[in-house]
Amino acid sequence: MAKEASATMTLETVRDSLSAQEDTIIYSLIDRVNYPLNSKTYDQSASLIPGFAGSLVEYVVKETEAVHAKCGRYESPTEHPFFPENIPASVVPVHEYPKILHPVASSININKRIWDIYFNKLLPLIAAPGDDGNYASTAASDLKCLQALSRRIHYGKFVAEIKFTDSPQDYEPLVRVQFQDSDALMNLLTFKKVEEMVKRRVEKKAAVFGQRVGLDDSKPDQKPKIDPAIVSRLYDEWVMPLTKLVEVEYLLRRLD
Ligand SMILES: O=C(O)C(=O)C[C@]1(C(=O)O)C=C[C@@H](O)C=C1
C-alpha cells in the first residue's frame, strides 16, 4: 500500500466521498426522469442498430466504454466497465494511481447485478410510462446513472481497506482462509446508525435537488422531480447492501 495515499485516506474522508457521490447519483436520476420509460431503448429485438444483436442501451454502453477504455478510464481503481469482455487496451500514457487497494481489488466487479437492478427494479419505479422517441438520449442518461451507481458501490473496496487497516485485530481472524466468515464480516462492517443517517440525507437531497423552481411564489408547491422516498429506498434496498457486498468480497481476499 502506498504510504502517502493511505495516510490521507480515513473512514471520514471515504464517507465524505460517498456523500459527494450521492449528489452525482441524484442529479443523474433527475436527468433520467426527464424522459419517459422509452422501453424501445431496452428492447433486445427492436433491431435499431443494423448488424448489432442487442438493445440500443447495450450498444451505447459498449461503444462508449470502448472509447473511454482507450482513453484510460478503466485504469482508475474507481472505475468499472459494464462489459469488461469488450474493453480495448488504453492507448494513453499510464497514470500512476496511488496503490491503496490490495491487487485482488481489480478482480471484483459486480456491475452485472447493478445493471439488473437498475433496469428491472429502479427504472420502472422512477420513469413515467410513455415513449417520446428520444432513445439515444435516454440511453446516454441511463449510462450516467449506471456509472455513478457503479462508482459508489465499488467504492466499498476503499471503505473495506480503511476498516481493515484501522482494525486488523478484528478483521484478520475472520479473513484467514481456514476461518473465513462472511456473515461475521458483514456484521463487523455494518453501522446501522450510519445507514439510517445516509437514508435520511439522500431523501433530503432528493427533495432539495428535485425542487421545481419558478418565479411565481403564489403557485402551490409542486411535487419534486423525483420521489425522495424512492431515493431513500434505492439506498436502503440496493446501494448500501451492494456496497457491503463489495466490502465483504474484498475483505475475503484481502490476505491472498
Ligand atoms: O460508512 C461505512 O462504514 C460504510 O461501510 C458505508 C455504508 C454505505 O454503504 O453507506 C455501508 C455499510 C455501513 O453499515 C454504513 C454505510
From TrEMBL:
Any one of the GO CC terms: cytoplasm
InterPro entries in the cross-refs: Chorismate_II_sf, Chorismate_mutase_AroQ_euk, CM_AroQ_sf_eucaryotic, CM_II_prokaryot
Span of domain Chorismate mutase: 135-247
Primary localization: cytoplasm
Recorded catalytic activity of this chain's protein: chorismate = prephenate
Subcellular location: Cytoplasm
Single GO MF annotation: chorismate mutase activity
Chain's gene name: LOC116187042
Known pathway: Metabolic intermediate biosynthesis; prephenate biosynthesis; prephenate from chorismate: step 1/1
Protein name, as recorded: Chorismate mutase
Enzyme Commission number(s): 5.4.99.5
Keywords of this entry: Amino-acid biosynthesis, Aromatic amino acid biosynthesis, Cytoplasm, Isomerase
The protein's enzyme class: isomerase
Pfam families: CM_2 (PF01817)
